[in-house]
Every structure is written in C-alpha cells, then in structure tokens.
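User: Run a structure prediction on this.
Assistant: Running it now.
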Amino acid sequence: MADITLPIPGRPYVIVTATREKSVLDLSRLEIEDLYKLHGALLFRGFPTTLDQFGAFTGQFCATSVFNEGPDRRMLDGERNIQSVDAGSDPFQLHPELSREPWKPDVCFFCCQQPPTSGGATTICDGTELVRELPAGLRDALAKRKLMYIQAAPPHVLEFWLGTSEPTDQQLRNPPANCPYVFRRAPTGQAIRIFIRPVFHTPMFATDPAFGNFLLFARFQNSISNFPVLDDGKPVPEPWLQAIKAVGDRLSAPVEWQAGDLLMLDNTRFMHGRTAIQNADERLIASYFGYLKFAVPNPDEPADPIWRRETFRPPARIAP
C-alpha cells in the first residue's frame, strides 16, 4: 500500500501518497474500502491518474451512477458517465451532491485533469463534526425536525414516474412502490411532488448524526428560502441558517488541486464546495457520482430504487 497520512484537525481527509505504485489501480481495493468506511474522505496524490484510470477506479466501488443534469457540466466519458464539475469561477457553498433530489448518491469522486493557477480549491466539511459544533440549543431543535422538498410535477416528470402525463387523483395518491415522491394536487389543480428527509441523518458508515442537505446551497448560493422548508411548511429561520453556515465555514478544509489528484468523498457524511477561481478555463476536474457495491440500505429510499439498478438519468430538472 502507498503511504497513508491520517486526518488531523483542520484536514479531515486521509492522504494516500504513491510510493512504488505506477497507477491508482495498483492499490488494494479492500484496503481503500476500509479507509473510506472509517474516515469518509480520501485524497490520492502522486498517481498520474488519467481519465481512463479514473473510470476504472470508480468502477471498482460502484454498481451504478447518476447523471448530473446541471447545465454547466461537460460529458467527458459518456460510456462511464464521467462529467466535468460545474463551470464558472464563482465560489460554491457547501452541499452534498444532488441533495436537492431523493436519489442523492452515496459517493463522489473527483479527479484533477488540469489544476488552476490560482484559486479553485475544493472545500470539504464533515457533516458529523458540524452537528457536534453547533450551539446546543440549535442542535437540539434541529434534531427533531425534517425538511420537505416541494416542487411542481410537470408532465414529463409525471410520465416518468407514473406512466402518464395527466394522472387522476387516485394515481397521484398511489405511485409505484419504487417512486421516491409523494404526489399531491395543489389548490390550483397543478400536481406537486414531495420528498422528506430529516435535518440530521445517520451517514452510511458512521453512527453520529450528520448535517448534509440542500439548505446552505439553496439559501446562500441560489438565494432561495422555501426549498426545502421545515416539516410545518415554514422556511428555516434565518438565524438558524446563519449559525449553521458559520460553523460550516469554520470547519471547511481546502483541497488544493495538483494534476492527477483523485478525491473519494462519502456523500452521506461530507459536504463540499469550492473557492473562487481566477481563470476557470484553466481548471478541469472530472466527476463521477455513484452508488456503492457495498452500500448499507438507506431507510429513506424506496424499495428497489431505479438508481441502484442501472445508471440513472432523471427527467430534466425544473428549477424550484
């Protein structure tokens, strides 16, 4: 095995540094799994990881993957569902990947094909540590609450999940067992889709509760206050959001990219973001969002979800 440097305060990820290995594929899959389950964030450095090697590496751990329909991504390898990360130069708020959807992936892989000259670090934050560092009163209040993600259900979404673009009220009330949404009819007659998740959840390979949802990105990146909302239908209070953001910002640690770096991140435990980039054209980071072969069943998912059976391409997203 390569040299292993365990996490320290201020750097919550393991660093796996190449020694005699010629490729990241020379590493022991089982040893990587053990490190991943224990620490949740692994940075592989000193391996000249090509796009082909990146695809082969992710295939060792994932049974399926999800296509991220974000508009600012490029497809780098269609056969292996490898995309670029979001383009642009602005900083990104902390978020788990695709936490705005019920099919949030288990794991994120990022591979630096070309690092920027300045800026563009990927920031990561351990959601379990964030919960521990919250003010006690806020932590106790949030532990009792759930988040509702409420969006319109346009015809193409209804067709995808219900098999018809014009469902009856009975069909809305009785979706298939593997559908991740609850459907309702709004007073206007429009169909809406809803999924619910706890504010704090238990990560796949940890026992302490974690914070990892769309709240920070929605409020501080997209300036949206009503997606998601609390289980009583009200927006999350601004003082709560500001307190959560302050702790997340304090705990965030940068990964300053070097060419060939590969980051493996537990998306059920860690959030990630990025710092501002001076020249976005210089930065090329490949990404892959997958569902693990060794996944622990998620009680919030429906039985036999489609994203764990095949590479999943969801119906086109409609902004909330």
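Residues 132-236 form one domain.
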